[in-house]
Amino acid sequence: MEFNADVVVLEKAPKVGGKTVWSAGAIMFDEDKTPQVETYEPFEESIRWLADQGIEVKEMTLDVPWDGKQIDTPDFAQHMVDRIESEGGDIRLETPFKELIVDDEGEIAGAIAHEADGLIEIEAPNVILAAGGFNASEELIERYITEHTDEIVIRGDPWSTGDGLL
User: What angle do CA 130, 133, 49 make, to 5 degrees?
Assistant: First the structure.
């Protein structure tokens, strides 16, 4: 891909995209506020990267008090699937992450995941966990949000159970 990496995507769900495809595709920023998450690329570079990938970046149509842009999220997810597969990447659906493989020096050496036939090990010098949140985890909602989990309406996909966070 961009950095000549061999890519394997382990997707817990039966389709790619998770909560991203449910979102309104808003990419918002407010230069007058301190960001909640430190970013490493300026907003403009990120928008340019999306456009360079062939993703249509539009003006924000949401009624929010921030500046931003908007993308078609299902289109974005499918575009990235097509790109990964066309460049030799491997996307494995219904293959949830279980744990990291750590070598004798304490360095990450890969990941273990569940497949239909059992556990698989994937050797990899780099692993990115895109956990997708925990909106479907009663345990994590109770731990981080409220003990009144029976009063919450779950908004999101049922696969976001915080496995990567746990």
Answer: 45
pTM for this predicted structure: 0.76
Residues contacting 102, CB < 8 A, separation 6+: 108, 109
* Amino acid at the residue 36: Q
Kind of pairing, strands 8-10 and 90-92? Answer: parallel
- Which residues make beta-bridge pairs with 101? 110
H or E element at residue 100: strand 97-102
Closest CA to 12 of 134, 160, 165, 126: 160
The pLDDT tens digits along the chain (166 residues) read 567 888 899 999 998 888 787 777 887 766 666 666 665 567 788 889 899 989 999 988 888 777 788 999 899 999 999 999 999 999 999 999 999 999 999 999 999 999 999 999 999 988 888 777 888 888 998 998 888 888 887 777 888 888 877 7
- The closest of 53, 68, 85 to 23, measured between CA atoms, is 68
Q: What is the CA radius of gyration of the chain?
A: 18
The span from the CA of 127 to the CA of 35, in Å, is 25
